[in-house]
Design a protein that fits this description.
This protein is an alpha/beta fold. The protein has a single domain, classed as Rossmann fold (3-Layer(aba) Sandwich), CATH 3.40.50.300. The protein has three helices and three strands; from the N terminus they run βαβαβα. The chain has a three-stranded parallel beta sheet with strand order 1-2-3, with helices on both faces. Strand 2, helix 2 and strand 3 form a beta-alpha-beta unit. The longest helix is centred in the last third of the chain and has 9 residues. The chain is globular. It starts with a strand and ends with a helix. Belongs to the small GTPase superfamily. SAR1 family. One of its GO terms (molecular function) is GTPase activity. Keywords: Endoplasmic reticulum, ER-Golgi transport, Golgi apparatus, GTP-binding, Nucleotide-binding, Protein transport, Transport. It is found in: Endoplasmic reticulum; Golgi apparatus.
């Protein structure tokens, strides 16, 4: 049983964004329909890193995020999915993402 999916993207390596077919395959998996997907855009502390909007567009997720607040899954067919920009080195941003994902883990 999967409680959550965390997908880490290097926002500096924009040439590799199209390689995110693994993410598309996971999102299409019906057994993961109610599993929260946390996408972390890493290395935002470095100039020229992709913005959140650029990352969303490149991953084809611009219209699929559910918002950084709480989503009531019992009343909908919503697939919880959100992007949080972070810097692992600077220890910022990822904590908010994990808190967001945690609300869906029972």
């Amino acid at each position: 049983m999967v409680d959550a999916v965390v997908y880490l993207v290097d926002t500096l390596d924009k040439d590799r964004f199209p390689e995110s077919k693994e993410l598309a395959a996971l999102l299409a998996d019906e057994s993961l329909a109610k599993v929260p997907f946390l996408i972390l855009g890493n290395k935002i502390d470095i100039p020229y890193a992709a913005s959140e909007d650029e990352l969303l567009y490149s991953l084809g997720l611009s219209n699929f995020t559910t918002g950084k607040g709480e989503v009531n899954l019992a009343d909908s067919n919503i697939h919880p999915l959100e992007v949080f920009m972070c810097s692992i080195v600077c220890k910022m941003g990822y904590g908010d993402g994990f808190q967001w994902a945690y609300q869906y883990i029972k």
